[in-house]
């Protein structure tokens, strides 16, 4: 039997069980992590990462729209708002398309995880050192289209608004827009190096192409990928998807104390970004619980300066659907 609305929105109910409720409430634990790797043309590089943020908060949804807020319980004692990481997400899901809108602002509580200044420089004393001179923000959206939406349900894996009853996969096509801002205090970094390594200045000095203070870039991407939902058992789902995006970056920055403005389209402005999503869900249409992880990778590269940014989250959640739709009959397996 098939649920017919319009041919474009048609689903095969032998593969996908639609939502029977109008509203949902969910409690979620989110553990976020991020890594920034900065490097220059002299092959010098520094990798930063803060402690993992542990967040807890409620989410509330109406059909395909879910909105939530999480509080970083590990950093509640921080007195300065500038050190607190902030993250807001708004998601809209349907059988055919999905939209993610997000805002992410890091604090200034990074630690040095790895640093390379040359083969003859022992940087071990710097590893794990606190560094407050790095901050970043990311805001944007991802819009994607599910080609095999009749049999494959992306929301079943990541918004719990449907249930996948038979295994299926689908190609994904998407577009994205992201605005990045990275601020780095290289004067503070130089002082930290001198204090921990205590080596001659000519050895420890960072190359001048690393003395970028602020870099802002706009990332516009077209992506393609594949997702698969594997039904392990009744009400159980294991899901995974991977998308690669060809992105164009328009950049303005302050590098070596001069203004850099790149306004013309060139091949050097193109790069590959990626998004991976993986999850496991138990869902009997009324109650649901599960875990998921979302991974993002962004790359920015110029002749003098480049960054690799990786961030993601691991979510553990439990929720309930309520206020049954008027045109749905109660299912026997709904308990």
TrEMBL record:
<dbReference type="InterPro" id="IPR025535">
    <property type="entry name" value="DUF4421"/>
</dbReference>
<protein>
    <recommendedName>
        <fullName>DUF4421 domain-containing protein</fullName>
    </recommendedName>
</protein>
<dbReference type="Pfam" id="PF14391">
    <property type="entry name" value="DUF4421"/>
</dbReference>
């Amino acid at each position: 039997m098939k649920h017919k609305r319009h041919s474009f929105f048609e689903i095969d109910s032998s593969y996908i069980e639609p939502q029977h409720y109008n509203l949902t409430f969910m409690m979620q634990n989110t553990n976020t992590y991020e890594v920034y790797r900065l490097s220059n043309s002299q092959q010098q590089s520094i990798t930063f990462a803060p402690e993992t943020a542990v967040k807890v908060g409620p989410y509330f949804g109406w059909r395909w729209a879910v909105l939530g807020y999480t509080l970083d319980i590990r950093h509640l004692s921080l007195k300065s708002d500038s050190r607190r990481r902030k993250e807001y997400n708004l998601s809209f899901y349907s059988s055919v398309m999905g939209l993610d809108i997000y805002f992410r602002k890091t604090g200034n509580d990074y630690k040095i995880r790895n640093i390379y200044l040359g083969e003859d420089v022992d940087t071990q004393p710097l590893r794990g050192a606190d560094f407050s001179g790095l901050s970043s923000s990311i805001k944007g959206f991802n819009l994607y289209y599910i080609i095999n939406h009749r049999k494959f349900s992306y929301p079943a894996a990541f918004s719990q608004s449907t249930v996948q009853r038979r295994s299926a996969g689908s190609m994904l096509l998407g577009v994205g827009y992201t605005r990045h801002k990275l601020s780095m205090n290289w004067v503070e970094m130089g002082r930290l190096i001198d204090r921990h390594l205590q080596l001659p200045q000519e050895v420890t000095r960072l190359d001048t192409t690393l003395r970028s203070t602020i870099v802002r870039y706009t990332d516009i991407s077209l992506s393609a990928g594949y997702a698969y939902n594997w039904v392990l058992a009744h009400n159980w789902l294991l899901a995974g998807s991977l998308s690669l995006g060809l992105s164009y970056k328009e950049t303005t920055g302050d590098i070596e104390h001069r203004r850099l403005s790149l306004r013309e389209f060139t091949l050097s402005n193109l790069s590959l970004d990626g998004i991976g999503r993986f999850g496991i869900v138990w869902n009997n249409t009324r109650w649901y619980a599960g875990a998921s992880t979302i991974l993002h990778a962004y790359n920015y590269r110029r002749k003098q300066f480049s960054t690799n940014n990786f961030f993601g989250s691991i979510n553990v959640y439990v929720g309930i659907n309520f206020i049954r739709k008027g045109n749905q009959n109660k299912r026997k397996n709904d308990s």
